[in-house]
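I am still learning, so would you mind making up any protein sequence you like and the tokens describing how it folds?
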Amino acid sequence: MNFHDVEFVLSVHSDKQLPLEELPEIAFAGRSNVGKSSLMNKLIGRKDMVKVSSRPGKTQGLNYFLVDGIMHLVDLPGYGFARVSKDMQNAWQGLITRYLENRKSLKCVVVILDIRHAPKAQDTQLMTWLSQKNIPYLPVYTKIDKISGNERTKNAKLLDAGHGLTPKTRILFSAKTGQGRDELISALKTFL
């Protein structure tokens, strides 16, 4: 994974639009505004390939990106608070659930959590559900540059305890500084 050649492929809004399962896929999931798009941009070394917005609910489909012609990164709509109708949120939920349960080319779900916030029930539910469905996932704590080192350590321990994780099973990441990027790439390679 060199991320030399990354291109947006399509935005999927229904099961019929999903591409053929010819390439491995890594999906990115997280609550609205946890830094999912910023993490993906830093990962692929681009500033604005994945659209970043301060408005929750900006990602409204499964956005596919082709990487080096060998794999897809899939940006999922955020969950939790979003300024969209309940009907739209329910439609996303159904599409995302079917995608996660049935996609044979899905190799890992990167679950993104903001290190500044206490453990959230929705994140726990997602990781528990992924475990029960035998879907590999990788927790990543983002926005580590926004708090001090002591706070970072304390908050990471709280998230670890709240979600039943250990430092070996998750990654600390900063989209601003790039800290954690190499570890994330290395971990993703193991899933591929």
Q: What stands out?
A: Residues 35 and 62 are 16 Å apart (CA to CA). The two ends are 10 Å apart (CA to CA). The domain at 6-191 is CATH 3.40.50.300 (Rossmann fold).
